Amino acid sequence: MASPDAPLRWKHLYKVLTKAGPFSDEDWVPGQETITSLESSKLLVIGAGGLGCEILKNLALSGFKDIHVIDMDTIDISNLNRQFLFRQADIGKPKAEVAAAFVERRVKGVKITPYVGKIQDKDEDYYMQFKIIVCGLDSIEARRWINSTLIGMVDFEDPESLKPLIDGGTEGFKGQARVILPTLSSCIECQLDMHAPRPAVPLCTIATIPRQPQHCIEWAHQIAWQEQRKDDTFDSDDMDHIGWIYSAALERAKQFNIPGITFQMTQGVVKNIIPAIASTNAVIAAATTSEALKIATSCNPYLENYMMYAGEEGVYTYTFEAEKKPDCPVCGNLARNLTVDSNMTLEAFIETLGERPEAQLKKPSMRTEEKTLYQRFPPQLEEQTRHNLKLKLKELIADGQEIAVSDPAYTIDFRFRLAFQ
Amino acid sequence: MTEAFPSALVGPSSKERKYDRQLRLWAASGQQSLEDSRVLLVNSDGPWSKQNTGVSGVVGVETLKNLVLPGIGGFTIVDPAVVTEPDLGVNFFLEEESLGKSRAEETCRLLRELNPDVEGSFQTKPITELLRDPEFLPQHKLVLISGPVKRSTLETLRKAAKSLGIPVLYTRSVGFYSIFSLQLAAVFPIVETHPDPESTQDLRLLNPWPELAAAGASISNLDSLDGHQHGHVPYILLLLHHLEQWKETHDGNVPSNYKEKTEFREMVRSSARTSNPEGGEENYDEAVAAVLKSLNPFSLRSSIREIFEMEECTRLTPDSPDFWVIAAAVREFYQRHNVLPLPGSLPDMKAQSADYVSLQNIYKSKARKDVEEVTELVRSIEAQLGSRVAQVSDKDVEIFCKNAAHIKVIHGRGIPQVNGDAHSLKALRNHLSNPESLIPIFLAFEILDDIVTDIQDGKRPEEVLDDEAVWEAGIDRIIGVLTSDEPSAVDEAARERIRKAARELRRTQGGELHNISALSGGLVAQEALKVITRQYGPLDNTCIFDGVRSGSEMYKL
C-alpha cells in the first residue's frame, strides 16, 4: 500500500508509530504492523464545515488513507472566513464534494469519498464499515441521532461492532472535544444537560410586551410573517426575506420605542447564528483527530473522555472524565427522573420538554405502559389523544409513573419517571 | 434618534457577509485593527545540518492560515528552507510541485489563495540578515517565531521587537507536545475585555441616583394596582420600593449582611400576590432571585485600584497614550463619586414595554451624563498636558466608561528561559514540585533549544537529537540551575518527570506531528487575534499543550 518514498515522506509520523514512548501502553508493539493498521483503517467524518474541513486535512496528514465524509449543505459566503477548503467560486456547491476533492488533490495517496445528504439516509450496514467516526457538527439533534445509532449497533459478541465516536463542537472562542466508546463510556445523551439550549422568549412577551430589539425580530419572524405572507415559505438564507423581517421588526420597535435593531442582529436571531472563527475550529478539530490517531494506532493513551476549551482569557482547557449515567435514555437501563408540577397540563408539559436540558425533545409523543397520552402521528391517533392535552398531569398519570417518549428526530424511545413536585 | 431607527434598508456588504461569524465576536473595530496589521512569521532559521532541514514550520503556517482567513492585513514569511519530502507529509500548504522550491515562497503562495483580501510576501534570507535593514521589522505589528531556534537568533529578534514595542509569540511544536510564550510590552492595556455579561451588571440599587430613586418612589401605590399591572412592575423598582420600606424599620440602613439580606428576601417574597391562577408573580420571582446578587455596595475591584495607582496613571506626560489619559480622568471621577461611571446596560426583565423602556432610559441617561463628566475631565487633563498629537476621541472615552470596571493591564514579560530572572526560577521550582504540572515539558523544550543551538553552531552532529547521554547531561545542567541556590528544590520524582517528558519529546527528533501543530496553530492564532484587536484577554505568558494527556496549562514564567 505504501509507496517507496513513504518512509521519507511520513518520517515524523512514522517515528511515533515505530518507537514506543514513556506513556504508550507497555503491551503495544510499534512498527510496520501499526503503520499498516493505520493505513487500512476506514474513517467516517460527519460534517464538512468549519470543523469538518480541518478534520479532513488533519486525518489525511495523520496517515489515514480511506476517509468518507457526509454533509448535506452547500457552500455559503459566510463559510469563507474559516472553511479554508472553499473559495468564492465554490459558493453554492456541496461542501462534502468540494472538501473531499481538495484534500485528495493536496495530499497524495489519500482517498476521500463524499456523500451529499443526511446521516439519517444511511443504515447500520453503512456505519458498520468504519473503524472510527469523527463528528464536526453544529446540530445537537444530529449528534444525538448518530450517538443512539452507534449505541444500538453494539453487539457484545463482536468487538468490531463498537465504533469509537469522537465529537467536536465550538461556539466563538469556546469548544469541546470528547471521546465516546458506545455502551462503555459516557455518551452524548448522558452529557445532554451540559449543553442546555438557550431559553426561548415567552410568546406573550413577543406578542404583546416586547422590551428588547430581539423581541421585535421574533415578532416579525414568528407572527408578522405568518399573518402577512403566509403563502411564501420563509427562507432564512434569502436576503429579501431577512430584509422584510428587518423592516417589520424596525416598524414594531419604533412603535414601542425600542432602539438597537440592526440587520446583523436580525439575521443572528432568525438563523440562530453562533459566532465561529478559524482558530477555535483549528483547536477543536485537531483535538479530535489527535485522538483518532491515538485510538487507531495506540501510540499514546487517548482522551478519557472530555476536554473543554475556552480561549477568551488566555488559554484554558479542562480535561475530565464525564460519567456514564445509569438513567441515560440511550445507554442506561433506568428511566430518567423528571420533577414536574402535577397541576401542569399535558400540553404545557410537552412544551417544557423542548427546553428542559435533560430532555430537549421538540415534537414528543408519549405513552404510559397502559395508555397513549398523546400521539402526533397518524392524524387519527392525534385526534383521539388531543383532548388529553388540556388535562392536568395528575389526571393522567400517578406520581412516580414511567412514560415512554418518542420524537420523530430519533429512532429510540426516551424513558422518564415523572415525580410530582 | 435617526441613528437608533435607520429608515432605509441597509443590507450587509459582501465583506460583512464573508466575515459575519467573526464580526459577532470582535465587531467592526476589531476587524479594522486586524486589517491594519501585518504579521511577520519567522518559520525557520535555516537547516540544522546537511541531512536535516530543521524546523518544519507547520505550526507557523497553520497559525498564519488562521489569521489569513479572518482577513489580517498582510503577512511576511521568512524561511530559508527548501521544500523536502518530509515537509509534504506534515504541511498542508505545500504540494507535490513544491518539492525543491523555496518553502517561504510556496507556503506564501498557497496561503494567499485562502483570502484575496490579504497581502502576502516572503523572504528566503535568514532573519538575522534581514534585521540589518532597519526598515524591515517596523512594518509588522506582531512577530511569530517557530522554534526551536538557535538562542542567539531568538535573542536578537526578541530584543529588536521589544525595542520597537512589537509583541512576539515564540512557539515550538514537537511530537505530542507544544509550548508558546507571548512577549508583550511592559505595560499592555486592554479596554474591551468582553467579560461575562452576568458579571458586569451594575444596578446601583443601594445608592440610586435621584432619577432612579424617584422611579422607585413612584410605585408606592402597589396595592392599588390590578393583577396585570402588579405582575408587571419591573423587579428593579420592586427592590427599590422594598428597600425604602426596610430602611424605615432599620434606622435608615440597607440590608448589609447575609442574614439581613435573607430577611429582606423573605419580605420581598411575601409581598407577591399568590391568589392568582399562576400562584405567584414572575417579577417577584426575579426580584427575589436578585437580592443576594445585586444588593451589594459598589466596591472598586483591586485590579482596577492597582491600575489607578500605576505611575502611568498618576504621572501623565504629554506623550502618555490615550488609555492613560482616560484612566486618569476616570480615576478622578472615582475620587469624586466613589463609584465608576455607570455602564448603563439593563438586563431584560418582566415588565410592560413602556415601563421597561423608561427605566432603561434612566440608566442610559445616567451613563451618558457620566461619560460627559469624564470627557470634561479628559479635556481638562489634555489642556494641562499641553501639546498632544491628537485629541482623545469621544468614542474612546465612551467605550472606556462602559468597560471601566473590567479594564485590564498586562505586565508583559520576556520569553521565559531557565537561565532567566529570579521570578522565572522560583515559578519553575514551585510548579515542578506538583506532579500534575506540565513544567517538565517546558524544561524538556529548553534542553532541546540548547541541543539545537549546538547543532546550528556546528558544535554537535544532528544525531544527538536522540542521544540518551546528551539529554541526560541536559537534564543535569537544568536541574543544576534550578537547584543552584536551593539544593533540595528538585527531588528524584521530579527528575523522573522531566526525564519522561524528555523521552516523549525525543521521539520525533525535533519533528512535528500535524495534529499537534494544527491545534497549537489555533491556540497561537487566538492569542495573536487578541493582541492585535486589543480585545479579550491575551495569554500571560506561557501555555503548554500536552497531546499525550490531551490538556493544557498556563504559566506565568
TrEMBL record, chain A:
- GO molecular function, one example? NEDD8 activating enzyme activity
From the UniProt record, give the pathway where this protein acts: Protein modification; protein neddylation
Coiled-coil segments, which residues? none
Domain E2 binding, by residue range, is 338-421
Q: Mind telling me which CDD domains this protein's record contains?
A: Uba3_RUB
Q: Which UniProt keywords apply?
A: ATP-binding, Ligase, Nucleotide-binding, Ubl conjugation pathway
Q: Which reaction does it catalyse?
A: ATP + [NEDD8 protein] + [E1 NEDD8-activating enzyme]-L-cysteine = AMP + diphosphate + [E1 NEDD8-activating enzyme]-S-[NEDD8 protein]-yl-L-cysteine
Entry's Gene Ontology BP terms: protein neddylation
| GO CC aspect terms | cytoplasm; nucleus; protein-containing complex
Q: Name one Pfam family in it.
A: ThiF
Keyword Phosphoprotein assigned to the entry: answer is no
EC assignment: 6.2.1.64
Q: Which family does it belong to?
A: Belongs to the ubiquitin-activating E1 family. UBA3 subfamily.
What this chain does, per the entry, is described as:
Catalytic subunit of the dimeric E1 enzyme, which activates NEDD8.
For this entry, the protein name equals: NEDD8-activating enzyme E1 catalytic subunit
Per the UniProt record, the lineage of the source organism begins with: Eukaryota, Fungi, Dikarya, Ascomycota, Pezizomycotina
Automatic annotation (TrEMBL), chain B:
**Keyword Iron found:** no
- Which Gene Ontology terms of cellular component type are present? cytoplasm
Metabolic or biological pathway: Protein modification; protein neddylation
Q: Which SUPFAM superfamilies is this protein grouped with?
A: Activating enzymes of the ubiquitin-like proteins
A single GO BP term for this record reads: protein neddylation
- Give this protein's Gene Ontology molecular function annotations: NEDD8 activating enzyme activity
One family from Pfam that matches here is ThiF
Record bears the keyword Acetylation: no
Keyword list (alphabetical) reads:
Ubl conjugation pathway
Q: Which Gene3D superfamilies match?
A: NAD(P)-binding Rossmann-like Domain
Q: Which family does it belong to?
A: Belongs to the ubiquitin-activating E1 family. ULA1 subfamily.
Quote the protein name from its UniProt record.
NEDD8-activating enzyme E1 regulatory subunit
Instruction: State the organism named in the record.
Output: Aspergillus ellipticus CBS 707.79
